[in-house]
Design brief:
This protein is an alpha/beta fold. The structure holds NADP nicotinamide-adenine-dinucleotide phosphate.
Length: 328
């Protein structure tokens, strides 16, 4: 039986770690990139991976990408820091791209597809209680990104219901942190980068449920290998942590502000700073999700969040993305 795995979005933060995990476990890996320009960079970073071109927005390349694969791990999806001009900029590639991948995979006889969704597909409109895989976001109460993830995951489940010949499992990660593999601070580690970069008078009281990118890579492999994972979604995220708590962890090794900024000040700054506008929505809100199902079904474990935070910081320093960090 083929041991070839296709990982979509091979240039991504998550995909890089997923590919490393798969190669380490002896799988052969093919990855998609959406432009040849990206391929050289990815090939240098992840030697041993075969790369093919395919864009979520077009049919070209997907049939060739899945040919001969036993598994497909679909991680690619637009994940921008800012708010798009129109929500369809995120929704169309997310939904149509997921369907393109699934259609090609089903036609090629792929055994199982694992889709990377998000807790954004679970939380929208459901705050204030412990959330599980039984919860779904209300798209009327989602921002464009959360809507794109919710609609893409729903489209994947609908497709799987109509195509029993293909197995589907879904991973719903929280905020992903952990070491970066190249000199790019993606959307989810940018908060840690900003703290280390200096210039912040204090820390906004934002809360999030984090997961380490290395643990998440293992979860993707387990969802691919575990027979009972089929037809299941798995939340992968730890207990809620606030930015001030995160800053205090960083302060063990780095000079960073740890004082919590008053919410009114963050709201005021959002009037002039577009980056703060997204953050305002999360002020004081607690992300409480349970990863018990992944622990139980997949035998999945998470490292302590302090290790993830400090390893993220160390990697940002290694790639010189934070200027002249001063040890505390
Ligand atoms: P990332 O580093 O931005 O990676 C996204 C990947 O998707 C990149 O390879 C990107 O290619 C690719 N992509 C975007 N639009 C595409 C298109 N139209 N056609 C083909 N490829 C396209 O983000 P990430 O953090 O690794 O995210 C990976 C997955 O995890 C996504 O599905 C995201 O929604 C999900 N997720 C992330 C977080 C988080 O905190 N990071 C949390 C929950 C879920 P380029 O390099 O060419 O742009």
């Amino acid at each position: 039986m083929s041991d070839l795995v296709l990982v979509t979005g091979a240039s991504g933060y998550v995909a890089g770690h997923v590919i490393q995990e798969l190669l380490g476990q002896g799988y052969r890996v093919r990855g998609t990139v959406r432009s040849a320009a990206r391929a050289a960079d990815v090939a240098a970073l992840l030697p041993g991976v075969e790369l093919v071109e395919a864009d979520l927005g077009a049919d070209a390349g997907w049939d060739a990408a899945v040919t001969g694969c036993r598994y497909v791990l679909h991680t690619a999806s637009p994940f921008p820091a800012g708010v798009p001009e129109h929500e369809d900029e995120l929704i169309r590639p997310a939904v149509d791209g997921t369907l393109r991948v699934l259609r090609a995979a089903a036609a090629a006889g792929v055994e199982r597809v694992v889709v990377t969704s998000s807790i954004a597909a679970i939380q929208g409109g459901n705050e204030g209680r412990l959330l599980t895989e039984a919860d779904w976001s209300d798209t009327a109460r989602c921002d464009a990104y959360a809507k794109s993830k919710t609609l893409a995951e729903r489209a994947a489940w609908d497709f799987a219901a109509e195509h029993p010949e293909i197995e589907l499992a879904v991973i719903n990660p929280g905020m992903i942190i952990g070491p970066i593999l190249r000199a790019e601070a993606g959307t989810s580690v940018d908060g840690i980068r900003a703290l280390l970069a200096g210039g912040m008078p204090g820390v906004p009281r934002l809360n999030f449920a984090a997961v380490d990118v290395r643990d998440l890579a293992v979860a993707h492999r387990l969802a691919m290998e575990t027979p009972g994972a089929v037809n299941n979604r798995y939340i992968c995220a730890g207990a809620a942590i606030s930015f001030p708590e995160l800053a205090r962890i960083l302060a063990q090794r780095y000079r960073v502000p740890t004082r919590a900024l008053p919410d009114w000040l963050v709201r005021l700054s959002a009037l002039v700073n577009p980056d703060a506008r997204t953050a305002v929505r999360y002020l004081g809100r607690k992300e409480t999700v349970s990863a018990d199902k992944a622990r139980h079904d997949l035998n999945w474990t998470m490292r302590p969040v302090a290790d993830s935070v400090l390893d993220t910081a160390d990697s940002l320093v290694r790639f010189a993305l934070v200027p002249a960090p001063q040890p505390a």
